[in-house]
Amino acid sequence: MSTPAPLAAPVPVPGRPLLEVRDLNAYYGQSHVLHGVNLHVNPGEVVSLIGRNGAGKTTTLKSIMGVLRSRTGQILLDGQDLTRLSSNRVAARGLAWVPEERAILSTLTVRENLELPPARPGGWSLERAYQAFPVLRERGHHPGSKLSGGEQQMLAIVRVLRTHPRLLLLDEPSEGLAPVIVQAIGDMLQELRGEGLSVILVEQNLKFAARLADRHYVLVDGEVVDEVARHEVEDRRADLLRYLSV
Amino acid sequence: MNTQLLLIQVFNGLVNGAFYALLSLGLAVIFGMLRIVNFMHGALYMLGAFTAFALGQAFGLGFWPSLIIAPLVVALIGMALERGLLSRLYGLEPSYNLLLTFGLTLLTQDLVKQVMLSQYAVSSAPYTPPPALSGVVNLGFVVFPKYRLFVIGLSLLICLVTWFVIEKTRVGAIIRASTENPMVTRAFGIDVSKWVTGVFGVGVGLAGLAGVLAAPIYSVEPYMGAELIITTFAVVVIGGMGSILGSVVTGFAVGVLAAIGAALYPPIANTLVFILMALVLLVRPSGLFGLPEGAR
User: Which one of A2, A87, B201, B263 has the fewest CB atoms closer than 10 angstroms to its CB?
Assistant: First the structure.
């Protein structure tokens, strides 16, 4: 049994990143998927992980969240190691994960889905979720599975905002959605970023990622091979597109 | 067969059905969340009855306090077994769990047998229903033992409450979420393992409750759960694994059908349930209320 470090109020240290990932290696059974990933997220920063399918982006998020357990390295939140914590404890420390498949629970109503994660002070109220996406109120009593893809994505994001996360792990929020929905989700993320929420955004849609992220990490075959800051994106667009092209 | 005899059989069937429903409901709740078939369920039913008997012998506790305390004792024992033993087998072949719970069944039965023989010098003991529930009720068209009507009513009530909690409350939402997607539910900050232990406790507590209810009808003996649990597994197969509503409806329906069948053609009494099970497996392998594998 690992003893969780006490849930003391985090003391921000000037210049220290909110999250720091050091030499992260991850495994699915016999296959070695991440090969020493290093990255960090500063307080209030939006960082994207971009790369092709299979590059290890989703695995990185799952490893940080503690959902994938077979991994080595260090995952530090405010300097405290999360590696040994189960994912419910990681969530209690202020991390929230929106998986790629959205994981809307079909045996729960839309409203039950919204209210499932334990609410914490400062988190989104039901009212705020309804204001942001009124369709969630209208569909409140429908089973979660009856929502459209875009509605499911909205629900998946606002659902975890109840927990007042300090760091949001978002896995391909724009995937498979109509442009107007992608726009709406982008607007909401802009708003959250304005409120100081830190985000790791996994994306294959460079346009969407470029609009939101302060920095981009490029993953290839389970390694970070490049880091591109917001102001460099214009000049290095060709490189980035090459990393993403199949 | 005259109408009155038929009605009596329907009532007797409902009494049996009340036990099938409570037991298969517990199995369904446990299977839904833990994905294990609790082979020990019959032994824990017996343990409920035995605890009520022992509480009476040791402390002079009557039926009503035992009806509350014995299921709690069974639930606590179940939770300790889940934490200490069952949880070590999660993620392994289901057959390991089957062997473990089967072994625990044999242990429990023999342990209770030893205690009954050495402490009370009996191999089986009667258990008196409370005075308020003795005697009969004249329903107008038929006269029926009061206690058995109580069993039907309480079983229905418990099933209804369980259904309500699971389908309509926040606790139920957490249980449904943990059943459907434990990984994501845990990542929301919910300690799924604790809920698994709790749900197992409630599931076997229902078996313990059924045991206390059965004591005044069938008397208390170490193997009282063995036969009943076989029939209950057939009920679970007919209703569909893991379906709450299915297990309750099927429990009562099978009880009534079997009783009527037995009255119409006595030799079929013991096999009718299994004939029904075979038929359902032929037509709807996932059970009357079950979803096909993969659609869950």
Answer: A2
